[in-house]
Specification:
147 residues, mainly alpha
Amino acid sequence: MEAMYPYAHVIHLMLAIIFLGYVFTDLTMISALKGKFSKDVNEKINKTLGVKSFKIFPITVLVIVLTGGMMMSKYINSNAGFFETNLQKLLVIKIILALIIALGILYNLYKKITKKPKHPFMENHFHKLVIVLGFFIVLLAKMMFEV
């Protein structure tokens, strides 16, 4: 497993950049398009983007979670302990923040598959939450090796 760590790390970072980059783009650019066109054009834009993101992002998030789990097992395990070091404590906080994002994505996927309406918070503010949590996840990832 130790030999796989560098590969998991690179894959994890690249996909996290893509994921957060899309969410940032959606918040800053794509949302600026809403209301600028007719209702039909807005629906076509949303449908086109939704189909693409539905194909790409569940797999992206799954691989991010799997590679994160692989990397986590190097620092948190029965031999190394769970809350013994500052690195482990920060890593656990980072994992909790990432799980909040993953659970939100699972919720959105469930609602999309069942064709049920999303909670207004998830509809209007989830990407904002993802950007904030993503910022803290990146910050914690850098701090883990500094403390």
